[in-house]
Amino acid sequence: MTKRRNGLGEQFLKTAVGVALVLSLAGVRANAQRLLPLDPAEPATGKPQPKLLPRPAGGVVRASVDEKSMRVLIAKLVACGTRLTLSSWDDPKRGAGCGRDAIAARFNEIAKDSGGKLQVVVDKFEMTSERTSSKPTPLENVYAILPGSDPQLAKTIFIVSGHFDSRPSNVMDPQADAPGADDDASGVAVSVECARLLSKAGAKGRGTYRATILFAAVSGEEQGLLGSTHLMDWAKQQGYTVGGMLDDDIVGADPAAGAPHRVRLFSGNGEMDDADSPSREMARAIEEIDGRAAIRMIFRIDRYGRGGDHYPFYKAGLPAVRFTEPLEDYNHQHQTPRTENGVEYGDFEKYLNFTFMGDVARDNAEALRQLALAPAPPTDAKLTGAVTPDAKVSWAAEEDAERAGFEILWRETSEPRWTVYDFAAAPGETVLKGVSTDNHFFAVRSVGKNGARSIAVPTEIARRPPPLPTPTKQ
To answer: How far apart are CA 408 and CA 443, in angstroms?
Structure first.
């Protein structure tokens, strides 16, 4: 035993020495970088840091989240047995209609406490897909709408959504049980709790939202993103411009040791070359609002090989992102409840983590709050100054008495996040002296007098391919 202990001691000593050497070398390299910069500074002479307005006061605090009401709503949805889109819409105790009724009832309770501001809508429609046997199928979405107070921005809408339909192993079987506690009663509970948090704040006079916020519970997700596709079309028909769409899907479980962990936030890149699609800018805005300790940005459209309700919005070029729990347990989603070889399958409430889910609700609500308080994003952002020593950033914007100005953003081409380069009080052109157009990406965002920031708008560049030889005729 003594020999073994001595061996372990020698091994530990070697490991400790190795770690110390690595840390020492790292320190030398860090000091070398400070003493001998590897790249020239841009701008060469340096510049004063712009004075930044603080973020809007009165943020959503975690203690204000009502986990109990979220738990009650999920229990009611699970008690419907199944909420498959192909199940009954008329039976009050089982099927999709049972889920619709529970959600509409909860929205109506919240509306009574909102001082009449929250408007509840049950939207009925038909859609067809391969998973409806290619036949028109009745569906219903439930919305709670908090109208914006600013005439200029009231037709801009920010959407948070979860889908209330569930599914068993066979997505075409309306008879099998499909409790769907995590997928996606959890996302519905987040959307509904956001309605309570934000409409309650507005009713108490703690600030009104310039833009409109829509809290949605959609159906038909498992049959082919039917409810969300209709929601996007419905918003357009109502004359809304979608400022951003937050999809909460599978946000209820976090069983790994050390929970709660960060929620994953998925965003696609669209057809942009430089990781600057509207969806990516939405993700960056949410992470900046809620903090890196809460949000883990994932630069994918969605989980590998899968999709969700933000996808129709994303494909339409609109800012749309997906919140999903840190690590999914596939035994507890898309499974008919059963036990096989001692393993329990099924999406039951007992596997949920309401502390984590409450965090997700708070993060959604605060992101919606700040985005709905912000001025409209700038337009026509451009970068010029190629083959010159200075970058020139220009943009346009409509008049807005509540806007303080604009932040000009930049980042290294390999960096995922923006930093503020400068502040400008008015639209037009700003010359970034001594800053190369080659080494950074640039964007502009509006800043309200209340400190709320719009989603960033990346600058467009004139794309000119290099001269190439003329093909010779054969």
So the answer is: 6
8 Å CB contact between 268 and 274: no
Rounded-to-integer distance, Cα 145 and Cα 367, Å: 17
**What pLDDT is recorded for position 94?**
98
List the 137-146 sheet strands across, edge first: 119-127, 137-146, 212-218, 156-163, 241-248, 320-324, 263-266, 295-298
Q: Are strands 263-266 and 320-324 parallel, antiparallel or unpaired?
A: antiparallel
Considering only CA atoms, which of 202, 244, 270, 192 is closest in space to residue 367? Answer: 244
Burial of 382 (0-12, 13-18, 19+ CB in 10 A): middle
**What pLDDT sits at residue 138?**
96
Q: How high is the pLDDT of residue 22?
A: 43
Nearest CA to 376 out of 448, 325, 474, 467 is that of: 448
| Residue 421 contacts residue 434 (beta carbons within 8 Å) | no
Q: How far apart are CA 316 and CA 334, in angstroms?
A: 28
Q: What is the pLDDT of residue 273?
A: 57
Counting Cβ atoms within 10 Å, is residue 76 exposed (0-12), middle (13-18) or buried (19+)? middle
Nearest-angstrom CA–CA distance, 63 and 329: 28
Nearest by Cα to 358 from 185, 109, 163, 189: 189
Q: By three-state DSSP, how is residue 440 classified?
A: strand
Centroid of chain to Cα 157: 15
Query: Could you write out the DSSP letters of every residue in 189-251?
Result: HHHHHHHHHHHHHHHTTS---SSEEEEEEE--STTTSHHHHHHHHHHHHTT-EEEEEEEE-S-
What is the three-class DSSP state of 326? coil
In what side-by-side order are the strands of the sheet with 460-461? 428-432, 391-396, 379-384, 460-461
Ranges of the chain whose pLDDT falls below 70: 1-36, 202-207, 271-274, 474
Neighbours of 452 (CB within 10 A): 25
Answer yes or no: pTM beyond 0.85. Answer: yes
Bridge-based pairing of strands 428-432 and 460-461 is: unpaired
Q: Which of 242, 290, 281 is nearest to 61 (CA)?
A: 290
Give the residue among 262, 386, 263, 245 at the shortest CA–CA distance from 320. Answer: 245
